[in-house]
Every structure is written in structure tokens, then in C-alpha cells.
Here is the input.
Amino acid sequence: MGKTLLQVENLRTYFHTFRGVVKAVDGISFSLDEGQVLGIVGESGSGKSVTSFSVLKLVESPGVVESDHIYFQGEDIGAKSEKEMMKIRGKDISMVFQDPMTSLNPLYTIEKQITEMLDLHQRGMTKKQKRERCVELLRMVGIPNPESRLKSYPHQFSGGMRQRVIIAIALAADPKLIIADEPTTALDVTIQAQILKLMERLVREQDASLILITHDLAVVSQMADRILVMYCGKIVESGSRDDIIHRSAHPYTAGLLRSIPRMGEEQRRLDSIPGMVPSMLDLPQGCCFAPRCKYCRELCRVKMPEDHQTAEGHTVCCHYPLVGGEAE
Ligand code: ADP
Ligand code: MG
Here is the structure.
């Protein structure tokens, strides 16, 4: 087991809107070891992006972030000022977002955008060293003829190539942690697979850790060491990849699994989870998933469930966890 890199304790991010309080992230705790890939999965609106923004202190008004602690490399970054966070963002922790077009500045060359990152976080490099580093980074992410692409602008790259550039920028300052929020959602399926493989390889080679956020359980099932399943701002299940994929105990996780095709399996019908994610302004009194859960019983409608540990490192928040994929 590696050393703990990030430990988030009781993170709560509430948006105080004129229609009421949106508890986008409501008391979640998790940790990530050095060198690990942590997947965060859940349908749209479950609080995945707000979780990552909260860790980086990027949530803006009317959002209010509170936590007991957010330890990063042993330091409580939950208590850090904006000035201190600016040194951490991009350098120790960098982010890759969904849309490569909005993350890149259309007016600057690729070289300028990578160099900006180097100037911010790796001062003291000569012009020549910076250019060499740019070429090295572009080569690492698989851009052909990197020397000749330095002066290109973002629109001269395809979507997949742009996402490679974003990854190069994210790696520029040798971060310890990369947070990738739906990094491949805007890309074609074949390109998605290439980019994911690339990210996994780079993260493992650079000895960095990765938080991979996606609505697609198939994506995290390929490369995450541990997986958190989020629903309505809470972690409903967490465990190793095998716990989540082969021993899922929460009916929501089981529902997500039934909706993805699996290799080597006889053809079968893919089921989507019936119903919709409830409004965050009007959450059910008991378990948030109860209205959509085929195993729902009376208790589920009235009482919020608590976390149960089903095995070492495998936790589920459900009154009646599944065993072997079925209700007891
Ligand atoms: P996900 O990334 O899982 O799709 P998000 O983390 O973006 O979900 O959002 C979680 C919830 O927080 C959603 O219900 C969303 O509407 C709400 N939310 C996010 N940002 C704001 C904001 N600035 N003001 C009010 N509500 C917000
Ligand atoms: Mg999101």
C-alpha cells in the first residue's frame, strides 16, 4: 500500500440559491494513495464536478465549501488561503476538463500555453530549456512531429489531439495529482480509449495519482484502482474496482452496471435505471435512491441509510445491501 496523498474528510458544498439550499456535496469522505487511480462515477448532477472544484477551492458564490479536513501530502489544504492555493493548483494538483476547446486559449500557440505553465511553476528555465520541455511533453502525449507543432493554434488540432495538448499542459509542472473531469466525454469512442490508455500510462510512469471523474462506469472500470459511486451529493458505495464491478452492494451501482455492455458476455439486453435523479431542491426524506430502487422497502422511504462496511475497504450506504448482486 502506498502513502496517502489526499484525504478528504466530511466535505460539504452547499449552494445557497434563491429557491433554496442545494446540497451538491453532502458530507463525503475519501482518500487516495500515491500512485493510485481513483474513479468517481455517477449520473449527471450527482456532485462529481463540485467535489473536484471543492478540493481545489474553486467553488464560487453562492457556493460555500466546508470540511473537517482536506489533507494533501500531509498538509491541511482546507485551511489554505487563495494565494497559497494558487501555488498548489497547476503545480501539485492539475486538472483536465471535458471540453478541450474551452480549456485552451484559441488566440495563443500551443508552445505559449505550455510555456505559461512552466513560467508559473518551474521558474529558472532558460528559453531553450522551455522549448525542449514543450517538445518533450508533446512527444510524451503522442503528438507527431512535435517540433513542427509548437507554433500551431488549438483550432489546427483535432479534438483528440487537443485533449492530448491539455494533458501535456497538465503534466508540465510534474504534478502529484491530476484531476480529470470527464476527460473523454467530448471525444469519439475510439479516441476515448486512446486518451484513457495514454492518461493511465503517463500517470503510472510519472508516479502521479489520478482522480478520474466520469458518468460512465465502463470508463473507470478499465483503469481505476478504487471507485466511488456518487448519487445526489453522497457517496453511496466505495471500494476497490473488483468490489464495485464484481461485488456491488448498492442497488444504484448494480443499476449502473446493468447499463454497460461487458466483454465476453452473451448478448443481453442493457437496462437503464428507471426514473430520474431527483431535484436537489426537493430530495426524498429517506434514501435518495428509494424512488428508483427496485428493492425499496418501507424503511428506505422514511429513514436515510448509514454507511455499512461489507468488507475491508468496501462501504455501502444502503439499508438492505445486495449480496452477490441480489437482495437478501
Ligand atoms: P456532476 O458533475 O456529477 O454532473 P455537479 O457536481 O456539476 O454534478 O453538480 C451537482 C449539483 O450541484 C447539481 O444539482 C447542480 O445543479 C448543482 N450546482 C452546481 N453548481 C451550482 C451553482 N453554481 N449554483 C447552484 N447549484 C449548482
Ligand atoms: Mg460534472
